[in-house]
Amino acid sequence: MEGRLLFLLCVLALGRAAVILNDCQIIQTLHGKLLYDNRVTYMREYFPIDYKLYVKYEEVLRCQNITTLKNKGITVKELRYLWGIINESILQTIQRALPQRHPTRPYITELQNIFKVLLRDTDEQQVESDLVLKLLEQLNQSEDRMKAVTPKALLDNCFKVLYALYEVECALCNPRMIMLL
Fold first, then answer.
1. What burial class does residue 124 get, using C-beta atoms within 10 Å of its C-beta: 0-12 exposed, 13-18 middle, 19+ buried?
2. pLDDT (tens digit, 9 = 90+) per residue, 89-115?
3. Hey, what's the signal peptide range on this chain (predicted)?
4. Residues 6 or more apart in contact with residue 106 via CB below 8 angstroms
5. CATH number of this structure's domain 33-180
6. Geometric angle at alpha carbon 157, from 177 and 86, rounded to 5°
7. Distance of alpha carbon 144 from alpha carbon 103, whole angstroms
8. 0.90 surpassed by pTM
């Protein structure tokens, strides 16, 4: 009986490790796509100077927001879900602003596909925090609180929050630190 229980616990632990490895492979791919050179090329050089998109105030998710939400007791799992939903929405906003043959369109489509894969195993039912549910509701409703932000700044925030949420678990390297060495 104890042997079966131990075996079951081992299988569950290995299954969890496999899920983490799969998520980390997706995160590593996303990390590579969001590196600085790509963000500059696709989000700044291919857009007119000072081009800004109007996004909902809640869609501007920065590391400071993540820290504040962590201090309010939001779990990392919920923060990752919120980050994924917000950036999926941002990518849709960028995609809508692009002309059909814009050189950034395939890049945004790739990022959208990565976010779809990342979010496919999670759903809103796993979110337990009232604060996160309130933020998700505001994302779906508010049209009155808009903010003008450059496309590059939106993806810069995406990259920084990705790094903050997955750095340790997925062994992400900080390109800035490599350049300093």
1. exposed
2. 999 999 999 999 999 999 999 999 999
3. 1-17
4. none
5. 1.20.1250.80
6. 140
7. 31
8. no
